[in-house]
Design goal:
Keywords: Transferase
Low-confidence stretches: none
InterPro entries: AFP_Neu5c_C_sf (IPR036732), Aldolase_TIM (IPR013785), PseI-like (IPR051690), PseI/NeuA/B-like_N (IPR013132), Pseudaminic_synth_PseI (IPR020030), SAF (IPR013974), SAF_AFP_Neu5Ac (IPR006190), SAF_PseI/NeuA/NeuB (IPR057736)
Number of helices: 12
Organism: Nonomuraea salmonea
Number of domains: 2
GO molecular function: transferase activity
Structural class: alpha/beta
Number of strands: 12
Mean pLDDT: 96
Protein name: Pseudaminic acid synthase
Shape: elongated
Radius of gyration: 30 Å
């Protein structure tokens, strides 16, 4: 188990739901703050930002290597610089966003993309760091974030087992003692069929750490399935309305969907229960209403047992229904009224 912002995270606790703001502010601080309020109203546990500028991620170049492929359904043909320019959250917005989040009871943290971002976030007192999938190979950045002594969440989109191991080793070596590793398909939006959620137990075994899911598929189905397979953290992008557009809108949850995720992920976790087979405590009342053999019309001593006066009905209390063949043709040894459970001492 680990703890982020005072909230315990691990198999023994409900899923920790993280709402990713990303570029869904659409260039408006007021909209960003409205999303914070919507996230809090939905019952999510944390709000996450991304801390970068276009210049800390790339350079303003339109060569083919610096463009998103034309076939991309959301950002096809766009240069990386222009995309990051649209999507980034200005650093001067971080403080008011974090303050609003904390006022609303949310854990607020961010994903830094370079050392200057870590420096800024340290000054803002974030309680944890997230390493984005594309940065999993940036071991110096991982070591820098881990060296703060704060919990670290690492997304593993696109990563091989060797790259995941290297990232985890780097984090531990730099002093990280609270680590979460997220399964992720780093496609936007991501096809559900490529989520490979059955690998979550493998990811847990490979790293020995708490695992979760950073999910870019539509809806909440994949996230709920992940909970059943051991995910303790669920991260989803959130927007006020997909109809408003924006760089991440197409694969983001709206507030009502986020609220459903919070409710249903907890319900999914609760439903996992224990590795036991047998009656549950809540089924005790139901056990009383199983079928058993009963006298279904008044009988006198000496009457034969027949299908007309003894049947398998609810409730329990009489002989097992399978005893019917053994009792038919025997005789009652005393009078019995309709509704009397049939027991061996009656015949």
């Amino acid at each position: 188990m680990i703890s982020i912002g005072g909230r315990p995270i691990g198999p023994g606790h409900p899923p920790f739901v993280v709402a990713e703001l990303s570029g869904n502010h659409n260039g408006s601080l007021e909209r960003a703050l409205a999303i914070v309020d919507a996230v809090a109203d939905a019952g999510a546990h944390a709000l996450k930002l991304q801390t970068y500028t276009p210049d800390t991620l790339t350079v303003d170049c339109d060569a083919p290597a610096f463009r998103v492929g034309d076939e991309h359904e959301l950002w096809g043909g766009e240069t990386l610089y222009r995309l990051f320019e649209r999507a980034h959250t200005p650093w001067q917005w971080h403080d008011p966003i974090f303050k609003r989040a904390r006022e609303r009871g949310l854990v607020a943290f961010s994903a830094p993309f370079d050392p200057t971002a870590v420096e800024v976030l340290e000054k803002l007192g974030v309680p944890a760091y997230k390493i984005a999938s594309s940065e999993i190979v940036d071991l110096p950045l991982i070591r820098l974030a881990a060296g703060t002594g704060k919990p670290l969440i690492i997304s593993t989109g696109m990563a091989t087992a060797a790259e995941i191991d290297a990232a985890v080793t780097a984090a531990r070596g730099a002093g990280c003692t609270q680590l979460v590793v997220l399964s992720c398909t780093a496609t936007y939006p991501a096809p559900p069929g490529e989520s490979n959620l059955r690998s979550l137990p493998l990811l847990s075994a490979l790293t020995g750490e708490v695992v979760g899911l950073s999910d870019h598929t539509p809806g909440i189905g994949a996230a709920l399935a992940a909970v059943a397979l051991g995910a303790c953290v669920i991260e989803k992008h959130v927007t006020l309305s997909r109809a408003d557009g924006g760089v991440d809108a197409a694969f983001s949850l709206e507030p009502a969907e986020l609220a459903a995720l919070v409710t249903e992920s907890r319900r999914a976790w609760e439903s996992l229960g224990d590795t036991v087979i047998g009656p549950r405590p809540s089924e005790r009342e139901g056990l009383r209403f199983r079928r058993s053999l009963h006298v279904v019309r008044d009988v006198r001593a000496g009457d034969p047992v027949t299908p007309d006066n003894v049947r398998s009905i609810r409730p329990a209390g009489g002989l097992h229904p399978d005893a019917a063949a053994q009792v038919m043709g025997r005789r009652f040894v005393r009078d019995a009224r309709l509704g009397t459970p049939l027991t061996w001492d009656l015949i």
